[in-house]
Amino acid sequence: MSEATASKPGQRRVITLERRYRASLEDVWRLWTTKEGIESWWGPDGFAVTVDHLDLRAGGELRYTMAAVAPEMIEFMQQDGMLVETSLTLVFTEVESLRRLSYTALADFIPHIEPYEMATTVSLEQEGGEVRMVLAFDAMHDEAWTERAVLGYENELERMAKLLQSAA
Predict the structure, then answer these.
(1) Pair 113, 99: CB distance under 8 Å
(2) What is the DSSP track for 7-53?
(3) CATH number of the domain bearing residue 19
(4) How many domains does the chain have?
(5) Strand partners, 50
(6) Which residues contact residue 121 at a Cβ distance below 8 angstroms, ignoring those fewer than 6 apart?
(7) Would you give per-residue pLDDT tens digits along the chain (168 residues)?
(8) Comparing C-alpha atoms, which of 125, 57, 120, 136 is closest to residue 88?
């Protein structure tokens, strides 16, 4: 993991994760941009995601429901005062087929914290037989939640790697 410091006063820093997958650009893109792809890996272990609406264009939305399904995740969510099932909306700000996907999301699910917007960008590049993926996202409101976000993304990206390996 590498982190870049925010360039504007008051702006949150950006967290960057990089992965390389032995896969085609099309396969990685499909996992990020289709209902079936998103539902197959999105969300950390112990959660299930259902895509309710997907409009893949700048200004379009991805609306999905994330639900804790593993007993330990249900218990964790309840103990932290969070809903076991949450509906979320992402708004795509950039869609460059097979290259780049950017979106914003409202972090409105955190108890006792005013909702705030977070930006995420996924960049893809074919390098020989591998796809280099760079995931950059805004840090959250504090270090504990930022660490949760990093761990969640790392878990999701591992799930993606397993899917791509099994498809190879």
Answers:
(1) no
(2) SSTTPPPEEEEEEEESS-HHHHHHHHHSHHHHHHH-S-TTEEEEEEE
(3) 3.30.530.20
(4) 1
(5) 65
(6) 94, 100, 101, 102, 134, 135, 136, 137
(7) 444 444 454 678 999 999 999 999 999 999 999 999 999 999 888 889 999 999 999 999 999 998 888 788 878 878 877 777 788 999 999 999 999 999 999 888 777 889 889 999 999 999 988 999 999 999 999 998 899 899 999 999 999 999 999 876
(8) 120
